[in-house]
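# nightly structure sweep
# worker-07 picked up a monomer target from the shared queue
# config: single-sequence mode, recycle default, output format = structure tokens
# input follows
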Amino acid sequence: MKRYAAEHPTPNLEFKLATGNMGVAAATNEAVDQARWEMSFAIFGALLAMCLVTFRSLRATLCILIPLAIVSVLCEALMPLLGIGLKVSTLPVVALGVGVGVDYGIYLYDRIETHLREGKPLGEAFFEALNERGTAMVFTAVTMTIGVGTWAWSALKFQADMGVLLAFMFFLNMVGALFLLPALAAFLLGRHAAPRRARSE
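# output follows
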């Protein structure tokens, strides 16, 4: 309506925006749509900066953040399929899922990098990292997924929607860290992982 009024100025006619519940709903939808992108850029920007400071490698940062971004897109694609609208109550779900899910990638990559610095090849470094952190990652993800997944049977729609979305993100972020992160490391690091022994020596 705002765009139509701006594109079709009429001297003898003035368009008034809706009031009451309809007006509040329209204003809320506009604010949520704008905040959605601002929130996503803010959280991924903060994670990008922190990972760059921690690992001092753009490749390592991409290995951690790309799985998170894919899961976030899948979560937003799942919402209309389940009839869950983007509103004030569901807006923080992506941020919460990303904030919790990034831990899996950081824990795993930290151990991979440690073993790479010891001179081990990428495959062996991943295997050792999986032995050290894999069980804890799966246990944590499954526990949290089951815990919030039970909210899906809640009589409150807000709680049910949150439970489904959080369970989806918690579990897929773990899957992304276990399967997609090492694949990205093999692709992005590749030959760049080999010279680490020479550097340490």
